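Exercise 7b. C-alpha coordinates:
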Protein backbone atom coordinates (compact mmCIF):
# COMPACT_ATOMS: atom_id res chain seq x y z
CA UNK A 1 0.00 0.00 0.00
CA UNK A 2 1.49 3.30 -1.09
CA UNK A 3 1.40 6.12 1.39
CA UNK A 4 1.93 9.79 0.75
CA UNK A 5 2.77 12.04 3.70
CA UNK A 6 3.01 15.78 3.37
CA UNK A 7 5.56 16.16 6.12
CA UNK A 8 5.35 19.93 6.35
CA UNK A 9 1.60 20.02 7.11
CA UNK A 10 0.69 21.52 10.48
CA UNK A 11 -1.89 18.76 11.06
CA UNK A 12 0.71 15.96 11.18
CA UNK A 13 0.96 14.38 14.67
CA UNK A 14 3.60 11.74 13.75
CA UNK A 15 2.50 9.20 16.37
CA UNK A 16 -1.21 9.06 15.41
CA UNK A 17 -3.53 9.98 12.53
CA UNK A 18 -4.10 13.68 11.93
CA UNK A 19 -7.42 15.30 12.79
CA UNK A 20 -8.65 15.75 9.18
CA UNK A 21 -8.05 12.02 8.57
CA UNK A 22 -9.46 10.79 11.87
CA UNK A 23 -12.56 12.97 11.94
CA UNK A 24 -13.29 13.53 8.25
CA UNK A 25 -11.58 10.69 6.41
CA UNK A 26 -9.17 12.91 4.48
CA UNK A 27 -5.98 11.41 2.99
CA UNK A 28 -2.80 13.30 2.16
CA UNK A 29 -2.97 12.80 -1.62
CA UNK A 30 -6.25 14.67 -1.99
CA UNK A 31 -6.67 16.51 1.31
CA UNK A 32 -8.10 20.01 0.92
CA UNK A 33 -7.07 20.88 4.47
CA UNK A 34 -3.35 20.71 3.75
CA UNK A 35 -1.73 23.61 5.62
CA UNK A 36 2.05 23.81 5.16
CA UNK A 37 4.07 25.23 8.02
CA UNK A 38 5.86 28.27 6.62
CA UNK A 39 7.43 29.53 9.84
CA UNK A 40 8.30 27.94 13.17
CA UNK A 41 7.93 30.32 16.13
CA UNK A 42 8.91 29.64 19.74
CA UNK A 43 7.46 31.77 22.55
CA UNK A 44 9.09 31.48 25.98
CA UNK A 45 6.79 32.91 28.62
CA UNK A 46 6.82 31.56 32.16
CA UNK A 47 5.77 33.79 35.13
CA UNK A 48 2.35 33.82 36.82
CA UNK A 49 -0.71 32.41 35.07
CA UNK A 50 -2.33 35.81 34.67
CA UNK A 51 0.81 37.15 33.05
CA UNK A 52 0.97 34.16 30.71
CA UNK A 53 -2.68 34.59 29.76
CA UNK A 54 -2.33 38.29 28.93
CA UNK A 55 0.66 37.48 26.70
CA UNK A 56 -1.65 35.39 24.48
CA UNK A 57 -2.78 38.84 23.26
CA UNK A 58 0.22 38.76 20.94
CA UNK A 59 -0.75 35.59 19.09
CA UNK A 60 -2.70 37.37 16.31
CA UNK A 61 0.27 39.69 15.76
CA UNK A 62 2.64 36.71 15.66
CA UNK A 63 0.58 34.99 12.99
CA UNK A 64 0.28 38.23 11.01
CA UNK A 65 4.06 38.70 11.14
CA UNK A 66 4.84 35.07 10.26
CA UNK A 67 1.95 33.73 8.12
CA UNK A 68 1.58 29.99 8.20
CA UNK A 69 3.34 29.84 11.56
CA UNK A 70 3.49 26.84 13.83
CA UNK A 71 3.71 28.33 17.34
CA UNK A 72 5.32 26.39 20.17
CA UNK A 73 4.91 27.90 23.64
CA UNK A 74 7.13 27.11 26.64
CA UNK A 75 5.57 27.79 30.03
CA UNK A 76 5.15 26.34 33.51
CA UNK A 77 3.06 23.27 34.26
CA UNK A 78 0.56 25.42 36.18
CA UNK A 79 -0.15 27.54 33.08
CA UNK A 80 -0.20 24.83 30.42
CA UNK A 81 -3.96 24.24 30.42
CA UNK A 82 -4.57 27.91 29.62
CA UNK A 83 -3.89 26.87 26.01
CA UNK A 84 -6.49 24.11 25.82
CA UNK A 85 -8.51 24.74 22.67
CA UNK A 86 -6.36 27.68 21.56
CA UNK A 87 -6.18 27.41 17.76
CA UNK A 88 -3.18 29.74 17.48
CA UNK A 89 -0.79 27.55 19.51
CA UNK A 90 0.25 24.21 18.05
CA UNK A 91 2.28 22.82 20.95
CA UNK A 92 2.78 23.63 24.63
CA UNK A 93 5.98 22.56 26.39
CA UNK A 94 6.46 22.79 30.15
CA UNK A 95 9.59 23.53 32.11
CA UNK A 96 9.21 20.50 34.40
CA UNK A 97 9.28 18.01 31.52
CA UNK A 98 12.68 16.59 30.49
CA UNK A 99 11.35 16.11 26.96
CA UNK A 100 11.16 19.87 26.61
CA UNK A 101 14.95 20.15 26.64
CA UNK A 102 15.25 17.43 24.02
CA UNK A 103 12.76 19.12 21.73
CA UNK A 104 14.29 22.57 22.08
CA UNK A 105 17.79 21.35 21.31
CA UNK A 106 16.78 19.33 18.24
CA UNK A 107 14.11 21.44 16.57
CA UNK A 108 15.13 24.60 14.75
CA UNK A 109 12.90 27.67 14.94
CA UNK A 110 12.76 30.63 12.60
CA UNK A 111 12.39 32.96 15.56
CA UNK A 112 12.55 32.65 19.36
CA UNK A 113 10.51 35.20 21.33
CA UNK A 114 11.18 35.91 25.00
CA UNK A 115 9.26 38.96 26.31
CA UNK A 116 10.62 38.81 29.88
CA UNK A 117 13.99 39.55 31.48
CA UNK A 118 13.33 36.59 33.76
CA UNK A 119 16.70 34.73 33.94
CA UNK A 120 15.06 31.30 33.59
CA UNK A 121 13.05 32.27 30.52
CA UNK A 122 16.05 34.05 29.03
CA UNK A 123 18.20 30.93 29.51
CA UNK A 124 15.66 28.82 27.64
CA UNK A 125 15.50 31.41 24.86
CA UNK A 126 19.29 31.29 24.48
CA UNK A 127 19.45 27.48 24.56
CA UNK A 128 16.76 26.92 21.94
CA UNK A 129 17.89 26.60 18.34
CA UNK A 130 16.70 29.71 16.54
CA UNK A 131 17.73 31.61 13.43
CA UNK A 132 16.55 34.84 15.06
CA UNK A 133 15.88 35.88 18.64
CA UNK A 134 13.79 38.77 19.95
CA UNK A 135 13.37 40.01 23.50
CA UNK A 136 15.84 38.62 25.99
CA UNK A 137 18.52 35.94 26.31
CA UNK A 138 20.83 34.89 29.12
CA UNK A 139 24.54 34.96 28.43
CA UNK A 140 27.49 32.82 29.52
CA UNK A 141 28.14 35.00 32.59
CA UNK A 142 24.56 34.59 33.84
CA UNK A 143 23.57 38.08 32.73
CA UNK A 144 20.32 38.81 30.90
CA UNK A 145 20.79 40.68 27.63
CA UNK A 146 18.16 42.83 25.91
CA UNK A 147 17.93 42.40 22.15
CA UNK A 148 16.95 45.79 20.78
CA UNK A 149 15.71 49.13 22.08
CA UNK A 150 12.24 47.96 23.06
CA UNK A 151 13.71 45.21 25.22
CA UNK A 152 16.28 47.62 26.70
CA UNK A 153 13.51 50.04 27.68
CA UNK A 154 11.41 47.25 29.23
CA UNK A 155 14.43 45.99 31.17
CA UNK A 156 15.18 49.46 32.52
CA UNK A 157 11.57 49.96 33.59
CA UNK A 158 11.54 46.64 35.42
CA UNK A 159 14.60 47.68 37.43
CA UNK A 160 13.45 51.18 38.37
CA UNK A 161 10.53 51.97 40.67
CA UNK A 162 10.65 55.56 39.41
CA UNK A 163 10.26 54.50 35.76
CA UNK A 164 7.56 51.99 36.63
CA UNK A 165 5.46 54.63 38.37
CA UNK A 166 5.98 57.15 35.57
CA UNK A 167 4.91 54.74 32.83
CA UNK A 168 1.63 55.49 31.04
CA UNK A 169 1.61 52.71 28.43
CA UNK A 170 0.00 49.29 28.52
CA UNK A 171 1.80 45.97 28.72
CA UNK A 172 0.54 45.15 25.24
CA UNK A 173 2.07 48.30 23.76
CA UNK A 174 5.36 47.93 25.61
CA UNK A 175 5.88 44.25 24.85
CA UNK A 176 4.89 44.66 21.20
CA UNK A 177 7.99 46.87 20.97
CA UNK A 178 10.07 44.27 22.83
CA UNK A 179 9.10 41.61 20.30
CA UNK A 180 9.05 43.82 17.21
CA UNK A 181 5.35 43.22 16.58
CA UNK A 182 2.69 45.57 15.22
CA UNK A 183 0.73 46.86 18.25
CA UNK A 184 -2.31 47.34 16.03
CA UNK A 185 -2.46 43.56 15.59
CA UNK A 186 -2.50 42.86 19.33
CA UNK A 187 -5.94 41.72 20.53
CA UNK A 188 -7.60 40.40 23.68
CA UNK A 189 -6.09 37.44 25.50
CA UNK A 190 -7.29 34.04 24.31
CA UNK A 191 -8.96 31.59 26.70
CA UNK A 192 -11.58 29.29 25.21
CA UNK A 193 -13.89 27.23 27.45
CA UNK A 194 -14.58 23.73 26.15
CA UNK A 195 -18.11 22.72 25.21
CA UNK A 196 -18.18 20.79 28.49
CA UNK A 197 -17.17 23.89 30.45
CA UNK A 198 -19.87 25.95 28.77
CA UNK A 199 -22.48 23.26 29.39
CA UNK A 200 -21.46 23.10 33.06
CA UNK A 201 -21.84 26.87 33.43
CA UNK A 202 -25.23 26.84 31.70
CA UNK A 203 -26.50 24.11 34.02
CA UNK A 204 -25.04 25.92 37.05
CA UNK A 205 -26.94 29.08 36.08
CA UNK A 206 -30.20 27.24 35.53
CA UNK A 207 -30.00 25.68 38.99
CA UNK A 208 -29.46 28.96 40.84
CA UNK A 209 -32.48 30.02 42.90
CA UNK A 210 -32.20 33.48 41.39
CA UNK A 211 -33.09 34.64 37.89
CA UNK A 212 -31.92 38.25 38.01
CA UNK A 213 -28.63 39.67 36.72
CA UNK A 214 -25.35 38.35 38.12
CA UNK A 215 -22.23 40.32 39.02
CA UNK A 216 -18.97 38.52 39.73
CA UNK A 217 -16.66 39.19 42.67
CA UNK A 218 -13.19 37.70 42.29
CA UNK A 219 -12.21 37.41 45.94
CA UNK A 220 -8.50 36.57 45.68
CA UNK A 221 -5.40 38.16 44.25
CA UNK A 222 -2.65 35.53 44.25
CA UNK A 223 -0.07 35.25 46.98
CA UNK A 224 2.72 37.57 45.85
CA UNK A 225 1.28 40.96 46.86
CA UNK A 226 -0.86 40.86 50.00
CA UNK A 227 -2.51 44.21 49.37
CA UNK A 228 -3.80 43.41 45.91
CA UNK A 229 -6.71 41.68 47.69
CA UNK A 230 -9.70 43.78 48.72
CA UNK A 231 -10.45 43.52 52.42
CA UNK A 232 -12.98 41.05 53.79
CA UNK A 233 -15.07 43.83 55.33
CA UNK A 234 -15.27 45.72 52.04
CA UNK A 235 -16.12 42.55 50.13
CA UNK A 236 -18.90 41.77 52.59
CA UNK A 237 -20.34 45.27 52.37
CA UNK A 238 -20.12 45.20 48.57
CA UNK A 239 -22.15 41.97 48.49
CA UNK A 240 -24.80 43.47 50.73
CA UNK A 241 -25.04 46.71 48.75
CA UNK A 242 -24.91 45.06 45.33
CA UNK A 243 -27.79 42.74 46.18
CA UNK A 244 -29.83 45.78 47.23
CA UNK A 245 -29.65 46.85 43.58
CA UNK A 246 -31.40 43.67 42.49
CA UNK A 247 -28.28 41.77 41.47
CA UNK A 248 -27.05 38.38 42.52
CA UNK A 249 -23.32 38.06 43.15
CA UNK A 250 -21.17 35.13 42.08
CA UNK A 251 -18.06 34.50 44.21
CA UNK A 252 -15.09 33.60 42.01
CA UNK A 253 -11.79 32.37 43.39
CA UNK A 254 -9.25 29.59 43.65
CA UNK A 255 -8.21 27.09 46.33
CA UNK A 256 -6.71 29.87 48.47
CA UNK A 257 -10.12 31.51 48.83
CA UNK A 258 -12.09 28.58 50.28
CA UNK A 259 -12.20 30.09 53.77
CA UNK A 260 -12.93 33.58 52.43
CA UNK A 261 -15.93 32.28 50.48
CA UNK A 262 -17.28 30.36 53.44
CA UNK A 263 -17.07 33.45 55.65
CA UNK A 264 -18.66 35.71 53.03
CA UNK A 265 -21.54 33.29 52.47
CA UNK A 266 -22.15 33.09 56.21
CA UNK A 267 -22.13 36.88 56.50
CA UNK A 268 -24.62 37.20 53.62
CA UNK A 269 -27.01 34.41 54.55
CA UNK A 270 -30.37 34.87 52.87
CA UNK A 271 -28.98 37.12 50.13
CA UNK A 272 -28.53 36.06 46.47
CA UNK A 273 -24.80 35.41 46.88
CA UNK A 274 -23.51 32.21 45.33
CA UNK A 275 -20.21 30.32 45.32
CA UNK A 276 -18.88 29.32 41.90
CA UNK A 277 -16.44 26.89 43.52
CA UNK A 278 -12.73 27.00 44.18
CA UNK A 279 -11.38 24.11 42.12
CA UNK A 280 -12.41 25.08 38.61
CA UNK A 281 -10.17 24.58 35.59
CA UNK A 282 -9.25 27.75 33.72
CA UNK A 283 -11.83 27.00 31.05
CA UNK A 284 -14.60 26.37 33.57
CA UNK A 285 -13.62 29.48 35.52
CA UNK A 286 -13.92 31.48 32.29
CA UNK A 287 -17.32 29.96 31.47
CA UNK A 288 -18.64 30.78 34.96
CA UNK A 289 -17.26 34.32 34.84
CA UNK A 290 -19.00 34.75 31.49
CA UNK A 291 -22.35 34.36 33.27
CA UNK A 292 -21.82 37.78 34.84
CA UNK A 293 -22.77 41.18 33.45
CA UNK A 294 -19.61 42.56 35.06
CA UNK A 295 -16.88 41.34 37.38
CA UNK A 296 -15.06 43.07 40.24
CA UNK A 297 -11.47 41.96 40.67
CA UNK A 298 -8.00 42.94 41.75
CA UNK A 299 -5.15 43.10 39.23
CA UNK A 300 -5.01 39.33 38.83
CA UNK A 301 -5.77 36.45 36.50
CA UNK A 302 -9.49 37.29 36.49
CA UNK A 303 -8.79 40.64 34.75
CA UNK A 304 -7.35 38.83 31.76
CA UNK A 305 -10.02 36.12 31.81
CA UNK A 306 -12.64 38.87 31.68
CA UNK A 307 -10.86 40.48 28.73
CA UNK A 308 -10.62 37.13 26.95
CA UNK A 309 -14.36 36.54 27.35
CA UNK A 310 -15.26 40.22 26.74
CA UNK A 311 -16.86 40.68 30.15
CA UNK A 312 -16.71 44.24 31.58
CA UNK A 313 -14.45 44.51 34.63
CA UNK A 314 -14.04 46.85 37.58
CA UNK A 315 -10.39 46.50 38.57
CA UNK A 316 -9.04 47.59 41.97
CA UNK A 317 -5.41 48.69 42.06
CA UNK A 318 -2.85 49.33 44.76
CA UNK A 319 0.70 47.95 44.66
CA UNK A 320 0.81 47.23 40.91
CA UNK A 321 0.76 49.37 37.76
CA UNK A 322 -2.57 50.84 36.69
CA UNK A 323 -1.27 51.93 33.30
CA UNK A 324 -0.02 48.52 32.19
CA UNK A 325 -3.41 46.79 32.43
CA UNK A 326 -5.40 46.91 29.20
CA UNK A 327 -9.19 46.57 29.57
CA UNK A 328 -9.96 46.90 25.83
CA UNK A 329 -12.61 49.56 26.39
CA UNK A 330 -14.72 47.37 28.65
CA UNK A 331 -13.83 48.35 32.17
CA UNK A 332 -13.18 50.80 34.97
CA UNK A 333 -9.93 51.15 36.92
CA UNK A 334 -10.18 52.22 40.56
CA UNK A 335 -7.29 53.43 42.68
CA UNK A 336 -7.39 54.57 46.32
CA UNK A 337 -7.42 58.35 46.78
CA UNK A 338 -4.62 60.49 48.17
CA UNK A 339 -1.80 57.95 48.13
CA UNK A 340 1.62 58.74 46.72
CA UNK A 341 2.93 55.20 47.12
CA UNK A 342 0.80 53.42 44.51
CA UNK A 343 2.63 51.08 42.12
CA UNK A 344 5.14 50.27 44.88
CA UNK A 345 5.33 46.53 44.05
CA UNK A 346 5.99 45.78 47.71
CA UNK A 347 4.85 42.34 48.94
CA UNK A 348 3.62 43.99 52.14
CA UNK A 349 3.68 47.47 53.67
CA UNK A 350 3.08 49.20 56.99
CA UNK A 351 0.61 51.84 55.77
CA UNK A 352 -2.52 52.01 57.92
CA UNK A 353 -5.00 51.96 56.35
CA UNK A 354 -3.38 50.27 53.34
CA UNK A 355 -4.33 50.93 49.73
CA UNK A 356 -7.10 48.35 49.31
CA UNK A 357 -8.75 49.41 52.56
CA UNK A 358 -9.17 52.90 51.08
CA UNK A 359 -11.27 51.70 48.13
CA UNK A 360 -14.82 51.88 49.46
CA UNK A 361 -17.64 49.52 48.48
CA UNK A 362 -19.86 52.46 47.47
CA UNK A 363 -17.33 53.55 44.82
CA UNK A 364 -17.13 50.02 43.44
CA UNK A 365 -20.91 49.60 43.37
CA UNK A 366 -21.25 52.81 41.36
CA UNK A 367 -18.61 51.62 38.91
CA UNK A 368 -20.41 48.30 38.44
CA UNK A 369 -23.70 50.06 37.85
CA UNK A 370 -22.09 52.33 35.25
CA UNK A 371 -20.76 49.32 33.35
CA UNK A 372 -24.12 47.55 33.47
CA UNK A 373 -25.80 50.60 31.99
CA UNK A 374 -23.18 51.20 29.28
CA UNK A 375 -23.02 47.57 28.20
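Sequence design result:
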Amino acid sequence: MSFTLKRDCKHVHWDRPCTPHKQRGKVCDTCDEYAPVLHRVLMVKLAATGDVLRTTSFLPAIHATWPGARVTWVTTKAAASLFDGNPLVSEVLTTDDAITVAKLTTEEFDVVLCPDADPDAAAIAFMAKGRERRGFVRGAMGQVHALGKGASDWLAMGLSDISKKANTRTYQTLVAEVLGLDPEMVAEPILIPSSGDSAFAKEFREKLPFQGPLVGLNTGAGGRWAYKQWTFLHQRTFLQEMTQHGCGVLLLGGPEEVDRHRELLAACSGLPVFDAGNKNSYGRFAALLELCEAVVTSDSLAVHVASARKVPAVVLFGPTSVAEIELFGRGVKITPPDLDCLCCYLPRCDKVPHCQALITPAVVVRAVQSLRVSH
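Instructor comment: The chain has a mean pLDDT of 94. The first helix runs from residue 19 to 24.
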